[in-house]
Amino acid sequence: MKATQCFYQDGEHKWVAIVRDPARPDCLIDTNEYLVSYNGSGLLLDPGGAEIFPAVFSALSAEFDPAALTGLFASHQDPDIISSLALWLEFNPKLPCYVSWLWASFIPHFGGSAETFVAIPDEGMEINLNGLNLQAIPAHYLHASGNFHLYDAKAKVLFSGDVGAALLPAKSDNLFVENFDAHIRHAEAFHRRWMGSNEAKRAWCERVSRLNIDMLCPQHGAIYQGADVERFINWFDGLRVGVAVG
Amino acid sequence: MTQNPSIGISQSRASTAGQDLVRIVRINEEIKSIVAVAFKINIMALNAIFLAKRAGTTALGFGVLSNELRVFSQDLKSAMGGLSGVIHEAVTEVSVVLKDQRLISLLNRAQEESGGNARVAAALELRQKQMVEHQSQLRAHRRQLKMVMENVAQLVELGGVLAKSAKIEAAYGQGFSNALGQVSGEFDGVVEDIRHSLVNLNKSEFFLQR
Ligand SMILES: [Fe+2]
Ligand SMILES: [Fe+2]
């Protein structure tokens, strides 16, 4: 089973990370799922692949009533992001899934019907979680051609999907980045290869530098906090991406 | 958490769905080979009709039979075409059952690991019901397939009779009796091939289930 760690709390407003599954087969990439909860309602961010649904579901249940989930948010269309959709819909057929309009007709291959999807336009949109305003921030081509991050201005948390992802050695299980320079080595090859556009990366770095961010939470690896957030944005800004040898 | 015994039963039943898919693929290959033979009979019958024409009045009966064999090959082809339609539906249904099975197994694991959740239990129950429904549809397809195959078997019996009669007629072909005999022997051989394929089809474990 996965572990849950609440890393932000202000009364009924919480951010919970669902991380590290010791029972996960090595062939599956390790993923972080995040729950934002506000006044008893929850939004699950990048709910994960079908194979890890049991682990995510049970970890979530320990922290939060899954029946109180009011939606799913998928940063993009990858299998490690949203192939569990059919199972979440078995649990609650009415659960909406927020996703880029670009993928709204692709993801139904994993499950769901036309009513399931709330298509996010390219410029992004506001998502209201029981009174909490969340913002879908465009991150197109980082790495998917239709891609969104989710910003919580009140908690100053940015969920950044695959941006900031690090493929860490099996033994490292810190929730937060401890040593930026050591950590970023595990992120470099991933960003060079997966992130497709230097132009899009530039635009994203400018866009998120204008946001007030305490914690930047990627879908793989550890969370950047405090000064490491800016460090990461500067590092990413200087990295040449879209590189594949072959 | 207490395990729902019905879940265990359905799971073991559903696990045959994957094997069913393999069996259906084999059945489909066998059907394709019969269609190929039907095509061959059609060509052979055409040639036999020309041969009978050349042999003239001595091969009138042989000509009639060759014509009948041609009709037979066309009937066989369309009967096999009907089978392909049923096969397609059976594949769809098996795939649906496989999906049910996967969802049930993952929901079961979620249920076990989380210590039980009423809504997951309800979802499981619903999915179980749907799977039972899909399995019964699959059984209906299986029966339909079996019925079409019985019709094909009767048709092939008729083909066998035609080929045997052609053999007898060939004996009256005088100067052409050797050539006619060879052709009728070939007819007999290919009808035998089909009969053999049908026996194989009937042996498929796909039909052994109820
Ligand atoms: Fe991805
Ligand atoms: Fe990913």
Indicate the low-confidence ranges of chain B by residue numbers. Answer: 1-14
Mean pLDDT of chain A: 95
Number of beta strands of chain A: 13
How many discrete structural domains of chain A? 1
The CATH topology of chain B, please?
Helix Hairpins
Oligomeric composition of the shown chains: heterodimer
- What is the SS-derived class of chain A? alpha/beta
Major protein interface: A-B, 17 and 16 residues
Straight-line distance between termini of chain B:
32 Å
Strand order of the largest sheet of chain A: 1-2-3-4-5-6-7
CATH class membership of chain B: Mainly Alpha
CATH class of chain A: Alpha Beta
Our Rg estimate of chain A from Cα atoms comes to: 17 Å
Helicity range of chain B = over 70%
The biggest sheet of chain B amounts to:
none
The string of secondary-structure elements of chain A, in order, is EEEEHEHHEEEEEEHHEEH
Helix content of chain A: 10-25%
What is the CATH architecture assignment of chain A? 4-Layer Sandwich
Alpha carbon gap, first and last residue of chain A: 39 Å
Q: What would your notes on this structure say?
A:
The complex is a heterodimer of chains A (246) and B (210). In chain A, helix 5 (198-209) runs antiparallel to helix 6. Chain A has one domain: 4-Layer Sandwich (Metallo-beta-lactamase, Chain A), CATH 3.60.15. Chain A has helices at residues 53-63, 79-82, 85-91, 180-194, 198-209, 227-238; strands spanning 3-10, 13-19, 33-38, 41-45, 69-73, 97-100, 117-120, 125-129, 132-138, 148-152, 157-159, 215-217, 224-225. The radius of gyration of chain A is 17 Å and the shape is globular. The mean pLDDT of chain A is 95. Chain A has a 7-stranded mixed sheet, covered by helices on one side. A 6-stranded mixed sheet of chain A has the order 8-9-10-11-12-13, covered by helices on one side. With 246 residues, chain A is α/β, with parallel strands linked by helices. The longest helix of chain A has 15 residues, at 180-194. With 210 residues, chain B is mostly helical. Chain B has one domain (5-208): Helix Hairpins, CATH 1.10.287. Chain B has 5 helices and no strands. Chain B has helices spanning 5-14, 16-55, 60-114, 118-171, 177-203. The radius of gyration of chain B is 25 Å and the shape is rod-shaped. Residues 1-14 of chain B have low confidence and may be disordered. Chain A binds chain B through residues 1, 50-51, 53-55, 57-58, 61-62, 66-67, 86-87, 90-92, and chain B through 102-103, 106-107, 109-110, 112-115, 117, 119-120, 123, 126-127. Bound molecules: fe (ii) ion (2 copies). One fe (ii) ion (FE2) binds at residues 78, 80, 162, 219-220 of chain A.
